[in-house]
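Data availability (excerpt). All sequences and predicted token strings are deposited with the supplementary files. A representative entry, 9451_t:CDS:1, is shown inline so that the format can be inspected without opening the archive.
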Amino acid sequence: DLTEDILTILHLQLAIMKARENALNHLDPRKLTLWKVNIPIDDDDNIKMLNNMSHKINIKQDLSGVELLLIDNQEYINIANRNISYLP
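Structure token line:
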């Protein structure tokens, strides 16, 4: 569950691993790459690209994504003020 207890990137990685335990049970949580992207709900092109999983998405290039690193822990996560989604 995404709760107020998630304060760091590692906490978020562990919560995702727990939520997707069956699909990700072979993966070390620290190897799970997380990206920070801003996709407005009315951005039809990017929404279509995300829904069309038949091709590989370059998150950095296609969505202006920034990789979240474990050393980014000084930027604490406030679940109450953010929309957090992940792709299965």
